[in-house]
Design a protein that fits this description.
Oligomer: single chain
Strand order of the largest sheet: 2-1-16-15
Radius of gyration: 23 Å
Structural class: mainly beta
CATH topology of one domain: Trefoil (Acidic Fibroblast Growth Factor, subunit A)
Number of helices: 4
Shape: elongated
Largest sheet: 4 strands, antiparallel
Length: about 375
Protein backbone atom coordinates (compact mmCIF):
# COMPACT_ATOMS: atom_id res chain seq x y z
CA UNK A 1 0.00 0.00 0.00
CA UNK A 2 1.45 3.33 -0.98
CA UNK A 3 0.55 6.47 0.94
CA UNK A 4 1.06 10.02 -0.17
CA UNK A 5 4.14 11.78 1.01
CA UNK A 6 3.71 14.32 3.04
CA UNK A 7 -18.50 36.57 0.48
CA UNK A 8 -17.12 37.39 1.87
CA UNK A 9 -17.07 37.36 5.61
CA UNK A 10 -20.05 38.49 7.64
CA UNK A 11 -18.36 41.51 9.05
CA UNK A 12 -18.59 44.57 6.85
CA UNK A 13 -15.75 45.63 4.62
CA UNK A 14 -15.45 49.15 5.82
CA UNK A 15 -14.16 50.71 2.64
CA UNK A 16 -17.73 50.96 1.41
CA UNK A 17 -21.35 51.10 2.47
CA UNK A 18 -23.05 48.25 0.67
CA UNK A 19 -26.62 48.98 -0.38
CA UNK A 20 -29.19 47.82 -2.87
CA UNK A 21 -31.75 50.32 -4.08
CA UNK A 22 -35.17 48.98 -5.04
CA UNK A 23 -38.01 51.48 -5.28
CA UNK A 24 -37.95 53.42 -2.02
CA UNK A 25 -36.37 50.64 0.03
CA UNK A 26 -32.74 50.39 1.07
CA UNK A 27 -31.47 47.03 2.26
CA UNK A 28 -28.60 46.19 4.56
CA UNK A 29 -25.43 44.49 3.37
CA UNK A 30 -26.58 41.02 4.45
CA UNK A 31 -29.66 41.24 2.18
CA UNK A 32 -27.87 42.50 -0.93
CA UNK A 33 -28.06 40.38 -4.04
CA UNK A 34 -25.43 40.62 -6.73
CA UNK A 35 -26.45 42.33 -9.98
CA UNK A 36 -25.66 40.29 -13.06
CA UNK A 37 -23.78 43.10 -14.77
CA UNK A 38 -22.13 46.46 -14.28
CA UNK A 39 -22.88 48.60 -17.33
CA UNK A 40 -21.72 51.72 -19.10
CA UNK A 41 -18.20 52.41 -17.90
CA UNK A 42 -14.79 53.32 -19.32
CA UNK A 43 -11.58 51.38 -18.75
CA UNK A 44 -9.33 54.36 -18.20
CA UNK A 45 -5.59 54.34 -17.76
CA UNK A 46 -4.61 56.27 -14.67
CA UNK A 47 -2.66 59.50 -15.24
CA UNK A 48 -2.55 59.23 -19.06
CA UNK A 49 -6.05 60.14 -20.31
CA UNK A 50 -6.04 56.95 -22.42
CA UNK A 51 -8.91 54.45 -22.50
CA UNK A 52 -9.37 50.97 -23.93
CA UNK A 53 -11.28 51.10 -27.20
CA UNK A 54 -12.46 48.58 -29.80
CA UNK A 55 -11.02 49.56 -33.16
CA UNK A 56 -13.12 50.13 -36.29
CA UNK A 57 -11.90 49.20 -39.76
CA UNK A 58 -10.28 52.03 -41.70
CA UNK A 59 -12.53 53.77 -44.18
CA UNK A 60 -12.26 52.19 -47.62
CA UNK A 61 -10.71 49.01 -46.23
CA UNK A 62 -11.94 45.85 -47.99
CA UNK A 63 -11.61 42.19 -47.19
CA UNK A 64 -10.88 39.25 -49.47
CA UNK A 65 -12.58 35.89 -49.04
CA UNK A 66 -13.93 37.01 -45.69
CA UNK A 67 -10.46 37.77 -44.30
CA UNK A 68 -8.98 41.16 -43.53
CA UNK A 69 -6.12 42.38 -45.68
CA UNK A 70 -2.79 43.21 -44.08
CA UNK A 71 -3.42 46.93 -44.54
CA UNK A 72 -6.72 46.75 -42.66
CA UNK A 73 -7.17 47.36 -38.95
CA UNK A 74 -8.84 44.41 -37.26
CA UNK A 75 -12.25 45.72 -36.21
CA UNK A 76 -12.18 43.62 -33.04
CA UNK A 77 -8.71 44.66 -31.86
CA UNK A 78 -8.61 46.51 -28.55
CA UNK A 79 -6.02 49.18 -27.82
CA UNK A 80 -5.54 52.51 -26.06
CA UNK A 81 -6.93 55.77 -27.40
CA UNK A 82 -7.70 59.22 -26.02
CA UNK A 83 -10.66 58.92 -23.65
CA UNK A 84 -13.96 60.06 -25.11
CA UNK A 85 -17.14 59.42 -23.12
CA UNK A 86 -19.22 59.96 -26.27
CA UNK A 87 -17.47 57.17 -28.15
CA UNK A 88 -19.61 53.99 -27.83
CA UNK A 89 -16.56 51.85 -28.67
CA UNK A 90 -15.08 52.87 -25.30
CA UNK A 91 -18.08 51.83 -23.22
CA UNK A 92 -18.03 48.44 -21.55
CA UNK A 93 -20.14 45.98 -19.58
CA UNK A 94 -18.79 43.63 -16.89
CA UNK A 95 -20.43 40.27 -16.25
CA UNK A 96 -19.61 40.11 -12.56
CA UNK A 97 -20.43 36.46 -11.96
CA UNK A 98 -18.59 35.07 -14.99
CA UNK A 99 -15.79 37.69 -14.82
CA UNK A 100 -16.15 38.62 -18.50
CA UNK A 101 -16.01 42.03 -20.18
CA UNK A 102 -18.21 42.88 -23.17
CA UNK A 103 -18.31 45.93 -25.41
CA UNK A 104 -21.66 47.73 -25.37
CA UNK A 105 -21.20 48.33 -29.10
CA UNK A 106 -20.39 44.73 -30.09
CA UNK A 107 -22.34 41.48 -30.02
CA UNK A 108 -23.08 39.90 -26.66
CA UNK A 109 -21.20 36.73 -27.62
CA UNK A 110 -17.88 38.62 -27.91
CA UNK A 111 -15.62 38.89 -24.86
CA UNK A 112 -12.50 40.91 -24.15
CA UNK A 113 -9.67 38.42 -24.66
CA UNK A 114 -6.06 38.57 -23.50
CA UNK A 115 -4.01 37.22 -26.44
CA UNK A 116 -0.25 36.77 -26.49
CA UNK A 117 0.39 39.89 -28.59
CA UNK A 118 -2.71 42.04 -28.18
CA UNK A 119 -6.23 42.37 -26.80
CA UNK A 120 -9.19 41.42 -28.94
CA UNK A 121 -12.95 40.86 -28.84
CA UNK A 122 -13.28 37.14 -29.49
CA UNK A 123 -16.13 34.62 -29.26
CA UNK A 124 -16.86 33.89 -25.59
CA UNK A 125 -15.73 30.41 -24.55
CA UNK A 126 -16.63 28.79 -21.20
CA UNK A 127 -13.60 28.23 -19.01
CA UNK A 128 -11.26 30.31 -21.19
CA UNK A 129 -8.78 31.88 -18.75
CA UNK A 130 -7.84 34.47 -21.37
CA UNK A 131 -11.35 35.89 -21.05
CA UNK A 132 -11.41 36.07 -17.25
CA UNK A 133 -10.88 39.57 -15.85
CA UNK A 134 -10.71 40.75 -12.25
CA UNK A 135 -10.66 44.07 -10.41
CA UNK A 136 -8.80 44.75 -7.18
CA UNK A 137 -9.77 46.92 -4.21
CA UNK A 138 -8.78 50.04 -6.17
CA UNK A 139 -10.95 49.01 -9.17
CA UNK A 140 -7.82 48.30 -11.21
CA UNK A 141 -8.21 45.79 -14.04
CA UNK A 142 -6.02 42.73 -14.51
CA UNK A 143 -6.22 39.53 -16.54
CA UNK A 144 -6.52 36.13 -14.88
CA UNK A 145 -3.70 35.00 -17.18
CA UNK A 146 -1.42 37.72 -15.82
CA UNK A 147 -2.27 37.31 -12.14
CA UNK A 148 -0.58 38.50 -10.02
CA UNK A 149 1.20 40.66 -12.64
CA UNK A 150 -1.66 43.11 -12.94
CA UNK A 151 0.17 45.45 -15.35
CA UNK A 152 1.33 42.79 -17.80
CA UNK A 153 -1.39 43.43 -20.39
CA UNK A 154 -0.76 47.19 -20.11
CA UNK A 155 2.93 46.66 -20.87
CA UNK A 156 1.85 44.54 -23.85
CA UNK A 157 -0.20 47.36 -25.32
CA UNK A 158 2.38 50.03 -24.52
CA UNK A 159 5.34 48.17 -25.95
CA UNK A 160 6.85 47.04 -22.63
CA UNK A 161 7.10 50.53 -21.19
CA UNK A 162 9.11 50.81 -17.98
CA UNK A 163 6.44 52.95 -16.32
CA UNK A 164 3.02 51.45 -17.08
CA UNK A 165 -0.08 52.94 -15.54
CA UNK A 166 -2.94 50.73 -14.28
CA UNK A 167 -6.32 50.64 -16.00
CA UNK A 168 -9.23 51.49 -13.72
CA UNK A 169 -13.00 51.19 -13.81
CA UNK A 170 -14.69 54.59 -14.46
CA UNK A 171 -18.47 55.00 -14.79
CA UNK A 172 -19.65 57.37 -17.50
CA UNK A 173 -22.70 58.09 -15.37
CA UNK A 174 -24.27 56.46 -12.35
CA UNK A 175 -27.08 54.02 -13.06
CA UNK A 176 -28.47 54.49 -9.55
CA UNK A 177 -29.50 58.13 -10.00
CA UNK A 178 -26.93 59.14 -7.39
CA UNK A 179 -23.48 60.17 -8.58
CA UNK A 180 -22.01 58.96 -5.27
CA UNK A 181 -23.29 55.41 -5.79
CA UNK A 182 -22.41 52.93 -8.51
CA UNK A 183 -22.29 49.23 -9.34
CA UNK A 184 -18.85 48.03 -8.39
CA UNK A 185 -17.10 45.48 -10.62
CA UNK A 186 -15.06 44.52 -7.57
CA UNK A 187 -17.88 43.49 -5.21
CA UNK A 188 -20.79 43.19 -7.66
CA UNK A 189 -22.92 45.41 -5.44
CA UNK A 190 -24.12 48.98 -5.34
CA UNK A 191 -21.59 51.02 -3.38
CA UNK A 192 -21.28 54.63 -2.33
CA UNK A 193 -18.25 56.88 -2.15
CA UNK A 194 -17.24 59.16 0.66
CA UNK A 195 -17.64 56.72 3.55
CA UNK A 196 -15.12 57.21 6.35
CA UNK A 197 -13.40 53.94 7.21
CA UNK A 198 -13.65 52.59 10.74
CA UNK A 199 -10.04 51.92 11.72
CA UNK A 200 -10.96 49.35 14.38
CA UNK A 201 -13.10 47.38 11.91
CA UNK A 202 -10.40 47.55 9.27
CA UNK A 203 -7.90 45.89 11.59
CA UNK A 204 -10.29 43.16 12.67
CA UNK A 205 -8.85 39.80 11.66
CA UNK A 206 -11.24 37.26 13.21
CA UNK A 207 -14.54 36.21 11.62
CA UNK A 208 -17.24 35.02 13.99
CA UNK A 209 -19.83 33.76 11.50
CA UNK A 210 -19.93 32.41 7.97
CA UNK A 211 -22.00 34.35 5.44
CA UNK A 212 -23.46 32.43 2.49
CA UNK A 213 -25.31 34.57 -0.05
CA UNK A 214 -26.10 31.66 -2.39
CA UNK A 215 -25.82 33.73 -5.57
CA UNK A 216 -22.30 32.77 -6.68
CA UNK A 217 -22.17 30.76 -9.95
CA UNK A 218 -19.60 28.33 -8.56
CA UNK A 219 -22.02 27.26 -5.84
CA UNK A 220 -24.52 24.71 -7.17
CA UNK A 221 -28.23 25.40 -6.86
CA UNK A 222 -28.39 22.88 -4.01
CA UNK A 223 -25.14 23.19 -2.10
CA UNK A 224 -24.31 20.68 0.59
CA UNK A 225 -21.93 22.26 3.05
CA UNK A 226 -20.17 20.55 5.90
CA UNK A 227 -19.84 22.14 9.31
CA UNK A 228 -16.56 23.84 10.19
CA UNK A 229 -13.48 21.72 9.55
CA UNK A 230 -9.82 21.81 10.39
CA UNK A 231 -7.40 20.38 7.85
CA UNK A 232 -3.98 19.09 8.74
CA UNK A 233 -1.76 16.54 10.45
CA UNK A 234 -3.30 16.55 13.91
CA UNK A 235 -0.85 14.08 15.46
CA UNK A 236 1.80 16.74 15.01
CA UNK A 237 -0.60 19.64 15.77
CA UNK A 238 -0.14 21.15 12.30
CA UNK A 239 -3.05 22.76 10.42
CA UNK A 240 -3.58 24.36 7.03
CA UNK A 241 -3.97 28.13 7.38
CA UNK A 242 -4.42 31.06 5.05
CA UNK A 243 -1.65 33.63 5.33
CA UNK A 244 -2.94 36.71 7.14
CA UNK A 245 -2.29 40.21 5.89
CA UNK A 246 -3.03 43.77 6.94
CA UNK A 247 -6.52 44.38 5.59
CA UNK A 248 -6.32 48.03 6.59
CA UNK A 249 -3.60 48.57 3.99
CA UNK A 250 -4.83 46.65 0.93
CA UNK A 251 -8.46 45.77 1.59
CA UNK A 252 -10.30 42.56 2.41
CA UNK A 253 -10.37 41.06 -1.07
CA UNK A 254 -6.80 41.82 -2.02
CA UNK A 255 -5.73 40.04 1.17
CA UNK A 256 -7.05 36.71 -0.03
CA UNK A 257 -6.86 36.77 -3.83
CA UNK A 258 -3.76 34.62 -4.37
CA UNK A 259 -3.07 34.29 -0.63
CA UNK A 260 -0.61 31.54 0.24
CA UNK A 261 -1.86 28.52 2.18
CA UNK A 262 0.71 27.46 4.74
CA UNK A 263 1.11 25.17 7.75
CA UNK A 264 1.02 26.45 11.31
CA UNK A 265 0.29 25.17 14.82
CA UNK A 266 -3.42 24.37 15.21
CA UNK A 267 -5.36 27.12 16.98
CA UNK A 268 -8.96 28.30 17.35
CA UNK A 269 -8.63 30.98 14.68
CA UNK A 270 -10.80 31.64 11.63
CA UNK A 271 -7.99 31.52 9.06
CA UNK A 272 -7.57 27.81 9.96
CA UNK A 273 -11.28 26.99 9.60
CA UNK A 274 -12.71 25.51 6.39
CA UNK A 275 -15.98 24.28 4.91
CA UNK A 276 -16.41 21.76 2.11
CA UNK A 277 -19.19 21.72 -0.47
CA UNK A 278 -19.92 18.07 -1.22
CA UNK A 279 -21.70 19.01 -4.46
CA UNK A 280 -19.29 21.59 -5.93
CA UNK A 281 -16.18 19.87 -4.46
CA UNK A 282 -14.76 23.19 -3.28
CA UNK A 283 -13.12 24.22 -0.03
CA UNK A 284 -13.77 27.66 1.46
CA UNK A 285 -11.85 29.43 4.21
CA UNK A 286 -13.84 31.11 6.98
CA UNK A 287 -11.82 34.30 7.09
CA UNK A 288 -11.72 34.79 3.32
CA UNK A 289 -15.37 33.87 2.69
CA UNK A 290 -17.27 32.37 -0.22
CA UNK A 291 -15.59 34.31 -3.03
CA UNK A 292 -12.30 32.42 -2.69
CA UNK A 293 -11.55 28.72 -3.15
CA UNK A 294 -8.62 26.55 -2.14
CA UNK A 295 -6.61 26.08 -5.35
CA UNK A 296 -3.70 23.94 -6.50
CA UNK A 297 -2.41 26.04 -9.36
CA UNK A 298 0.98 26.24 -11.07
CA UNK A 299 2.67 24.30 -8.28
CA UNK A 300 1.27 26.50 -5.51
CA UNK A 301 -1.40 25.89 -2.89
CA UNK A 302 -3.28 29.17 -2.60
CA UNK A 303 -6.66 30.82 -2.28
CA UNK A 304 -7.93 32.15 -5.59
CA UNK A 305 -11.07 33.86 -6.84
CA UNK A 306 -13.46 30.95 -7.42
CA UNK A 307 -13.82 30.17 -11.11
CA UNK A 308 -17.03 29.12 -12.80
CA UNK A 309 -17.47 25.75 -14.45
CA UNK A 310 -15.53 22.61 -13.75
CA UNK A 311 -12.11 24.06 -13.11
CA UNK A 312 -10.08 21.15 -11.73
CA UNK A 313 -7.59 23.35 -9.90
CA UNK A 314 -10.25 24.17 -7.30
CA UNK A 315 -11.89 20.77 -6.80
CA UNK A 316 -11.06 18.44 -3.92
CA UNK A 317 -12.24 15.22 -2.30
CA UNK A 318 -11.56 13.14 0.80
CA UNK A 319 -10.45 9.56 0.14
CA UNK A 320 -13.02 6.91 1.09
CA UNK A 321 -10.66 3.97 1.27
CA UNK A 322 -11.92 0.50 2.21
CA UNK A 323 -13.03 1.17 5.75
CA UNK A 324 -12.41 3.27 8.83
CA UNK A 325 -9.03 1.62 9.44
CA UNK A 326 -7.77 2.19 5.90
CA UNK A 327 -4.75 4.54 6.29
CA UNK A 328 -5.70 6.91 3.47
CA UNK A 329 -9.36 7.22 4.46
CA UNK A 330 -10.22 10.90 4.95
CA UNK A 331 -7.07 12.14 3.27
CA UNK A 332 -7.45 15.37 1.28
CA UNK A 333 -6.79 14.86 -2.41
CA UNK A 334 -6.73 17.00 -5.49
CA UNK A 335 -9.66 16.10 -7.71
CA UNK A 336 -8.10 16.68 -11.12
CA UNK A 337 -5.38 14.04 -11.31
CA UNK A 338 -5.69 10.84 -9.20
CA UNK A 339 -2.12 9.87 -10.07
CA UNK A 340 -0.83 13.05 -8.44
CA UNK A 341 -3.52 13.44 -5.83
CA UNK A 342 -1.12 14.48 -3.09
CA UNK A 343 1.20 16.66 -5.13
CA UNK A 344 -0.13 19.76 -3.41
CA UNK A 345 1.70 18.89 -0.19
CA UNK A 346 4.99 19.63 -1.94
CA UNK A 347 4.05 23.32 -1.72
CA UNK A 348 3.82 23.13 2.09
CA UNK A 349 6.56 23.58 4.66
CA UNK A 350 6.59 19.91 5.63
CA UNK A 351 5.15 16.63 4.38
CA UNK A 352 1.85 16.07 6.16
CA UNK A 353 -0.89 13.59 5.61
CA UNK A 354 -3.70 16.15 5.40
CA UNK A 355 -6.93 14.91 6.95
CA UNK A 356 -9.97 16.62 8.45
CA UNK A 357 -11.49 17.17 11.87
CA UNK A 358 -15.13 18.21 12.31
CA UNK A 359 -15.32 21.02 14.85
CA UNK A 360 -19.04 20.87 15.68
CA UNK A 361 -19.75 18.47 18.55
CA UNK A 362 -22.92 16.71 19.72
CA UNK A 363 -24.00 16.08 23.32
CA UNK A 364 -21.65 13.10 23.50
CA UNK A 365 -18.68 15.18 22.41
CA UNK A 366 -18.43 13.57 18.97
CA UNK A 367 -18.08 15.43 15.71
CA UNK A 368 -21.39 15.91 13.90
CA UNK A 369 -22.59 17.22 10.57
CA UNK A 370 -22.11 16.05 7.00
CA UNK A 371 -19.18 13.69 6.72
CA UNK A 372 -16.79 15.08 4.05
CA UNK A 373 -15.92 11.53 2.97
CA UNK A 374 -19.32 10.08 2.06
CA UNK A 375 -21.67 13.04 2.50
CA UNK A 376 -23.75 11.26 5.15
CA UNK A 377 -24.92 12.96 8.31
CA UNK A 378 -23.05 11.79 11.40
CA UNK A 379 -23.51 12.48 15.10
CA UNK A 380 -26.58 13.40 17.14
CA UNK A 381 -26.75 17.14 16.52
CA UNK A 382 -29.73 18.60 14.63
CA UNK A 383 -29.52 19.04 10.87
Amino acid sequence: MMLCSAHRPLYQVSFYILIMISGENTYGADEVESPAHANNFLLKQKDTGQCLVVMDELEGCHSEAGRLMDSCVNSNRVTFSECNEENPEQRWMFDFQNKRIHSLKRKDDLCLTRLSKNLSMDICQPGNLQQLWLFNQQDQLYSRVDSPGSLAFVKLLQGNTDAPSPVTFNFVESETGDDQCYLSPFTGRVECLGFAADEDALKQQEVEFWHWSGHWPWQPEHIKLTEDLKLGDFKNNRCLAVTQCHMDSVGQYDCFGGAKVQVSACQSVSHQVWRYDLVGKRLFNKQAGEQFCLSWLSGKLTLEHCLTGGDGSQKWYFAQGKGSKYPERGQLRWFSNPNEHCDYVKALDFEPIVKFEILKRDSQGKGCGYNPIDGLWKGLCAN
